[in-house]
Amino acid sequence: MRNIGAYIFAGAFAALLSSPTPSAAFGLHVGPLHVGLPFFGHWHRWRHHRHAIYDRAAVNERLSGARSAEPPQRERVDNSALLYPSLALPSLYDEIFWPARSASWPFGYDALVDSAFAKKSPPDANPQACRPGDPNAVVGRISAEIRPDAAQQPLLQKLAQALGTASGYLAHACPKAIPPQPAERLQLMQAQIQTLSMALDLIRPPLQQFEQSLTADQRPHFAAFSSESGAAAACGTPQAAVERPIAEIEQRVAPTDDQRPALDALKQAFAGAASDLDAHCPASSPAMPFARLEAMESRLDASWRAALAMQVALAQFESRLTEQQRARFDALAVTAAQ
């Protein structure tokens, strides 16, 4: 989706303002880059049937008594960048322009699992996470370090406008409510990752144009590498983090022999998601901001694929549960962390 956001944003933004979700505004149910979708061949068919699987209002009503016995709730998900990508934007801008140190990836495997299963009541949006950011600090620092000449000033202004538009776009995509069920929440995460990818698409052309305009003296300043820069990110998902959520689900749900294949598929999907995310974890930071943006978009694509794989497998597993098993499943507070 590298070019889609830049080409269609102007015409679609008006529709977005009146649409309840970004995916509804653009009519899209695809990943950030549309490519590299291993083990997702049934997504088109799944898209048309997911609402039937997720529609459990009647079941939830019958199970309301069972939920009163839920264990103590885990931390709220108010500050999950997977649900509120605006929260991650300042750190992503830092990673693009000033990668002074290795930072944890807010769209990784642990974050996906924790955000999907964390309990939150009531499932309302966090208004503090819906405010657009101010790009002036980013542009001001670039201007101070680069000292653009008269010919470069309009290019920097275009970059400033793109940064502001991307921030406003993400703020408008703030969800009005957080789905209570893991599969539904993962579906929201897919939409939010896609929205973030489209927002970053808006930055690509002006960033590339400004970077190409730099002189040989200016380019080292734009690289903005400190002595700590270029450090490898923390890569590699521990095997225990992959196995722990499945073990908790198995223990609580107690699947029958007929349900075992769906549980095995769930375990395979979680393991495949973690492996794909690890494969796209950068060994080092690229030298220039535009290349860092491209690497970030590739990593976001892996996060989208991971959310999709986990969502489909979870929904298929849930569809095979009895009402009593589903009540126990809904009471879970699964975590990938120790």
What layout of secondary structure does this protein have?
Elements: H1 4-17, H2 22-26, H3 43-47, H4 50-54, H5 57-62, H6 64-67, H7 89-97, H8 109-117, H9 136-146, H10 153-172, H11 182-212, H12 219-223, H13 239-253, H14 260-279, H15 289-318, H16 323-330
Helix pairs in contact: 1-11, 7-15, 8-11, 9-10, 10-11, 11-15, 13-14, 14-15
Descriptive notes:
The chain is mostly helical and 338 residues long. It has 16 helices and no strands. The chain has one domain.
Radius of gyration: 21 Å
Which series of helices and strands comes N to C? Answer: HHHHHHHHHHHHHHHH
**Number of separate strands:** 0
Report on the biggest sheet.
none
Strand content: under 5%
Summed over residues and divided by their number, the pLDDT gives a mean of 77
Secondary structure: helix percent: 55-70%
**What number of structural domains do the residues give?**
1
The best one-word shape is elongated
Tell me the number of helical segments per DSSP (H or I, 4 or more residues long): 16
Structural class: mainly alpha
| CA distance, first residue to last residue | 35 Å
> Which stretches are poorly predicted, pLDDT < 50 over at least 5 residues?
1-31, 33-75, 226-230
What would a concise description of this structure say?
The chain is mostly helical and 338 residues long. Helix content is 58%, strand content 0%.
Characteristics:
16 helices, mainly alpha, disordered N terminus
